[in-house]
Amino acid sequence: xxxxxxxxxxxxxxxxxxxxxxxxxxxxxxxxxxxxxxxxxxxxxxxxxxxxxxxxxxxxxxxxxxxxxxxxxxxxxxxxxxxxxxxxxxxxxxxxxxxxxxxxxxxxxxxxxxxxxxxxxxxxxxxxxxxxxxxxxxxxxxxxxxxxxxxxxxxxxxxxxxxxxxxxxxxxxxxxxxxxxxxxxxxxxxxxxxxxxxxxxxxxxxxxxxxxxxxxxxxxxxxxxxxxxxxxxxxxxxxxxxxxxxxxxxxxxxxxxxxxxxxxxxxxxxxxxxxxxxxxxxxxxxxxxxxxxxxxxxxxxxxxxxx
Length: 307
Ligand SMILES: [Zn+2]
Description:
This protein is an alpha+beta fold. It has two domains: 4-33 and 132-298, no CATH class; 60-127, no CATH class. Helices cover 52% and strands 14% of the residues. It binds zinc ion.
């Protein structure tokens, strides 16, 4: 016999997939990619340099790049120093030979040395909002769900608290303490979405090493669980979830592929949470193999690393 809840979960997954595809075609996404392209992909050693000077840095760019993005570095902000290559033009004959050898168009310059240049984190700048792939949820349709989620997670041994969070995150899961923090002051729908996302991490990604090694997949799974659970409760978190999933997957095609790979884990986890927050009348069958696998994962011992 067909289980109607399975149909609803599958429908939610299809909606998520369609949303990801539609987003990739939108102006919002194009604006985001354009801004994204302005940020340099820093080398491994420069990334280490940035993090050693400013561990909380999220978006780093040079003074002029910030101006191009409509933002300016605040007066008095200290730069983060990284190493930039200095190019020198080759002599004409030498360039010709190198060009023949390499067949490329950078043959008329070569790196002669490195110098220190200053870059700045987005938190050190003011100005226009950067084009974002996600829109914060502002509705309050989910107001009664938050309490049920908190109770469900606490019963699973993972307490949820609402606190002030430094930085821009709306919430986090701390595997070492097996606890969840949701940012205070969020609109009810956003708070509920964030809580489900972090609860999904607490169920699926309790091992920090697995999380660190497969961060993109873990984020895609957690956000997809959030989308499916909210969809089941009649709340559309697409404005946030489509962009979040697509960004972490590295593009829409990759996201659709990863969704298919993780479909069973996503649905089993969503079902577990839906069951846990449902009144008896809505209770659905959760006794399948995927749920058991999820339970086994949740039982793993885990050291530190926030997610
Ligand atoms: Zn996450």
